[in-house]
Amino acid sequence: MTAVRKFWPLLTGTYTYDKSISTRNRGMGIAIEAPILAYLIETTQGRILYDVGCDYRKIDDPALRARYYGDLPFPPPDMPADHRLPARLRTLGLDPRDIDLVFLGHLHFDHVGGLHDFAHADIHVHEAERLAAGEPGARGYFPDDFAADYRWHLQRGEYDLTPGVTAIESPGHTAGHMSMLIELPRGAPILLCGDAADLIENLEDEIAPGLCYRDDETAALASLRALKSRACSCGAHLWPNHDIGFFRTQDRFPQWLD
């Protein structure tokens, strides 16, 4: 029986970039708006966050903004004050310290930057991801986002965080990318693709993300196909991670899915 009670997708900000960043060798010159999401899972054994968005301090401070975003091929994200995770949690009557476990699908800046608000929590990430994030020339990482002495739990393979919440290896976008299967108490299961699939298009057309580990799409395509097969076998709905149209069809905040 699942331990999941409630599930919220949380919009923490948006950014605009060239579509080819999400769809490899496709969509060049087309600007898209993408959500920056976190997911809150309330269970009978505690609260889990999948991803924590960007570090809003790097956006608020002009010097940090220029330092971290000045050389990126897109503008800094838009993170209104009421979208940031501490504000989202306050709306639900919660505080960051009410989060027991943070699960990081990978360590790119738009998924791990908010970690400083959750230093008290257990932090799960794939061990290959921690290693690859330190490789020379690794792209998409702001190393100081995850340099502090957090309560790291380095993982590998498929495992249950709690009954009804399963971590699934889905490498390719990054070396240690992880997706998550969530069994709701009433509705169909949800399979959070993370950045294994930014858009519905990635899933339907089996298009790898624009950024692939060591510029090789082989593992990314294998992960896409494995996630689709897994969803088919258990009746789960696949959720892409940066598709603004899809997100808007699912957003009920502050109401939840169950």
From TrEMBL:
Cofactor(s) the protein requires to work: Zn(2+)
Listed transmembrane segments: none
Alphabetical UniProt keywords: Hydrolase, Metal-binding, Zinc
A molecular function GO annotation: metal ion binding
InterPro entries (UniProt xref): MBL_superfamily_lactonases, Metallo-B-lactamas, RibonucZ/Hydroxyglut_hydro
Domain Metallo-beta-lactamase positions: 35-242
Pfam families documented for this protein: Lactamase_B
Family per record: Belongs to the metallo-beta-lactamase superfamily.
Protein name: N-acyl homoserine lactonase family protein
Species of origin: Acidiphilium acidophilum
Taxonomic lineage: Bacteria, Pseudomonadati, Pseudomonadota, Alphaproteobacteria, Acetobacterales
